[in-house]
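for the recovery benchmark. tokens below, seq after
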């Protein structure tokens, strides 16, 4: 019993001092134009392109200073008889080239997710191509909290376990554009 009580006290003291240390770091590192800001940013955006999971979708980012994790969920609509409508997704990592205080920030990164839909006539029907994509672009904060981003995504479509991706699947760079807010 005494051993359990000792452990409980040590754990409580750890959390008490960890919270105080975090508050000191927060106060020292988070001064920005005379206001307190968290060093971790969160963004939600609506737009189109591969970072948004398809032709149209949503994207969220969580990051600190120069690096952010992003995830997108979207929709690929049917364009013609050789494509189908399907849900798309994307997850990745972005790196920013400028300080967080800057209104215009250049960025680049990698995403992995759905980057194409195609049709095979040999009986396999419609297929969804997934793979990595390289992203380059910029982000502009219009006002405090409101921003837009634009960029180019270059997908890398390789082969799956038993056949290559369809030859008629489009290759090249695809634009992306989104509008969102920081919270």
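predicted aa per position
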């Amino acid at each position: 019993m005494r051993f359990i009580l000792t452990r409980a006290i040590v754990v409580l003291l750890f959390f008490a001092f960890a919270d105080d240390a975090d508050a000191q770091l927060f106060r020292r590192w988070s001064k920005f134009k005379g206001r307190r800001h968290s060093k971790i940013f969160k963004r939600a955006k609506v737009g189109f392109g591969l970072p948004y999971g398809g032709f149209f979708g949503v994207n969220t980012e969580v990051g600190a200073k120069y690096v952010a994790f992003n995830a997108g969920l979207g929709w690929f609509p049917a364009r013609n008889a050789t494509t189908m409508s399907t849900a798309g997704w994307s997850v990745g990592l972005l790196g920013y080239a400028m300080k967080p205080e800057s209104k215009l920030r250049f960025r680049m990164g990698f995403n992995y997710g759905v980057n194409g839909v195609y049709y095979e006539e040999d009986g396999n029907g419609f297929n969804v191509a997934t793979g990595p994509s390289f992203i380059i672009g910029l982000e502009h904060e219009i006002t405090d909290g409101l921003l837009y981003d634009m960029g180019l995504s270059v997908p890398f479509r390789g082969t799956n376990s038993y056949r290559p991706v369809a030859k008629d699947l489009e290759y090249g760079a695809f634009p992306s554009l989104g509008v969102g807010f920081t919270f």
